[in-house]
SmpA / OmlA family protein
Amino acid sequence: MDRLVRALLLALWCGPLAALAAPIPFSVFIRLDTGMSEAEVLELTGPPDYVSDGGSVRYRTRHGFGYGDRKIMTWYADGVEPHTTTITFRNGRVSDIERHKKF
């Protein structure tokens, strides 16, 4: 029982430290492109600060409408890198990349 309590305390203590992610530097940002898989993006950028599972969405295509899964990942700005980067995935592939400067 004592081991379980120690493990839980360690997890609670380390949890917030593990959740901190680094912002995406410009040298990595310019390598991102639409159509990349989620695994390719995470290999370049590391884990995001925030992940939103958008669920199923309806979107317009050239031939009408389609349905798919959407996920949004965000890397927040910090004191060194002043840009927040948001990447939207549709069906596991990058569909949109946004970068905003923090003022």
Notes: The longest helix spans residues 2-19. The chain has one domain: 22-101.
